[in-house]
Amino acid sequence: MRIDKYLKNARLIKRRTIAKEACDQGRIAVNKKIAKPGTEVKIGDIIEMTFGNRKTTIEVLALEEHVTKEMAKMLFKIISEERLEAE
Questions:
Q1: What is the pLDDT of residues 3-19, one digit of tens each?
Q2: Alpha helices, DSSP H, located in 2-84
Q3: Global confidence as pTM
Q4: Which domain, by its residues, includes 67?
Q5: Domain total of the chain
Q6: CB 4, CB 19: distance < 8 Å
Q7: Per DSSP, what are the bridge partners of residue 51?
Q8: pLDDT recorded at residue 52
Q9: CA–CA separation, 19 and 3 (whole Å)
C-alpha cells in the first residue's frame, strides 16, 4: 500500500493530499529513508513522522483498504513520541 494512502487510512493524517504534501516536504520516513508519496509500506515497516517540533515513530501492524474509526487504531503501534528542541 502507498504511504500516503496508509497514513490516511490509519487516520494519522486527515487527508491523502496532506499526506502527499508531508512526503513531498520530507517529513515522512519509512525504515529511515525519506518517503515519496508512492513509497510502498508493508507490515513491520517503521514510519517516522515529523510535524513542527514533534516526531512520532510507529510500526505498521496491518494494511486495510477500508477502515472504520475504531479499526484505524489497530493498523499501527506507536513506538515513540518525542519533542524536538528548537534550533
A1: 999 999 999 999 999 99
A2: 3-9, 16-24, 69-72
A3: 0.88
A4: 3-83
A5: 1
A6: yes
A7: 54
A8: 85
A9: 8
Strands (DSSP E) found in the chain: 28-30, 33-34, 46-51, 54-60, 76-83
User: Residue 46 maps to which CATH number?
Assistant: 3.10.290.10
Q: DSSP class of residue 55?
A: E
Q: How far apart are CA 56 and CA 28, in angstroms?
A: 10
58 forms beta bridges with 47, 78
Contacts of 28 (CB under 8 A, 6+ apart): 3, 7, 19, 22, 34, 35, 47, 48, 49, 50
What number of CA atoms fall less than 13 Å from residue 11's CA on the CB side?
10
pLDDT tens-digit profile of 15-48? 999 999 999 999 999 999 999 999 999 999 999 9
- DSSP code of 40? B
Closest CA to 30 of 10, 51, 13, 6: 6
